[in-house]
Design brief:
It holds the Pfam family YgjP-like. The chain is α/β, with parallel strands linked by helices. The protein is about 40% helix and about 20% strand.
Length: about 200
């Protein structure tokens, strides 16, 4: 059973490496004492994933992705305030756009129910829907980057999408958001009756 945040000593460590599923550095530690459980925790800028020694490389890749998503979801449940959101936008702009996208304001809003974010380049303002709160961190980062890109390139032409190619989880985040929208459109099933 996977758990995020636990730690087990005595694991054989694999050298730290960049994960294919994210930009974070991931270190996988295999342990002969670990039978079924998989766990992960953050250690500075690295993520440590603890797995059973017998796990195949394919299982390892799958579990690393699962645990990164689980940690990101736990971290994003800590709701960022507008100040933290502004700081996060500045870090993302520096990392992916050489600091060229400089919003004046970045804030959460509760009146965007059909859009995840919006940007007014003339004012330098970015607004994110409150519906993103609680979603995985990489999804919030994608929406922030999407709106930051609009400060540099209006519209959704090839130049705009080229900017977002720098973010390694663009397609995954877009797929996540599409899944949320699709789930919202599904008819709600009646609750099961107890007999």
């Amino acid at each position: 059973m996977p758990s995020a945040g636990s730690h087990q000593r005595g694991a054989a460590a694999r050298p730290a490496r960049a994960s294919a599923t994210s930009a974070v550095e991931v270190e996988v530690r295999r342990s002969t004492r670990r039978r079924k459980s998989v766990s992960a925790y953050r250690e500075g800028d690295r993520t440590i994933v603890l797995i059973p020694a017998r796990m195949s490389q394919a299982e390892e890749r799958r579990w690393v992705g699962v645990m990164l998503d689980k940690l990101a979801a736990q971290e994003s449940k800590r709701h960022l305030g507008d100040t933290e959101l502004t700081e996060r936008a500045a870090r993302l702009s520096a990392q992916y756009f050489d600091g060229r996208a400089r919003p004046v304001t970045v804030r959460w809003v509760t009146n965007q129910n059909t859009r995840w974010g919006s940007c007014t380049p003339a004012e330098g303002s970015i607004r994110l829907s409150h519906r993103l709160q609680g979603m995985p961190e990489y999804v919030v980062d994608y929406v922030l980057l999407h709106e930051l890109a609009h400060l540099l390139v209006p519209g959704h032409g090839p130049d705009f999408w080229r900017l977002l190619e720098a973010y390694p989880r663009t397609e995954r985040a877009r797929g996540y958001l599409e899944g949320v929208v699709a789930a919202e459109r599904l008819p709600h099933l009646p609750a099961a009756r107890e007999e």
